[in-house]
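Recall that a protein's primary structure is simply its ordered list of amino acids. Everything else, from secondary elements to tertiary packing, is in principle encoded there. The following example makes that idea concrete.
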Amino acid sequence: MAGGGAQLPRRQKSTARRLFESLQKAGYQGAYDSDQRWVKVWKVTIRPSLHKAFISLSFRPGEAYQFDWSSETVILGGITTAIKVAHFRLTYSRRSFVRAYPRETQEMVFAAHQDAFLALEGVPERGIYDNPNITLYFGSTHDQIPSNPVCITISQTFSATCYVSLLK
């Protein structure tokens, strides 16, 4: 129960009071202050270790790029318009390329990749995509399973392997 709901909104997270109430329902007959003392000790000794997770992301030059789309609203010629924006970022240098398109279609995905690779002066070894709908391979092993014709074409055209980003 302690630490439960770490991802929940603040009002729904576990508290000493909620812990005490659930313990009472389970038959606990101790006092609330005993529960508070335990929670206080838990926060000092156990909880800090839950927040020490760190994943170092380091890349070689030319190893990878990250790709994503965003939806934006702009004013073009006095008219409010929804557009899609392709975002590329080289993982080593953090150099970026951004291009806006009227829609997110297959042709625009290909055009975005071609334009980015021309502007960035090369094609990294692999692409990192956080959207499974645009990815070629699933999983974190080298057992690669083709899944999406769009990304297969990108891979064949640009000789870059696509991977799903499991980090968000």
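The two ends are 26 Å apart (CA to CA). The first helix runs from residue 16 to 25.
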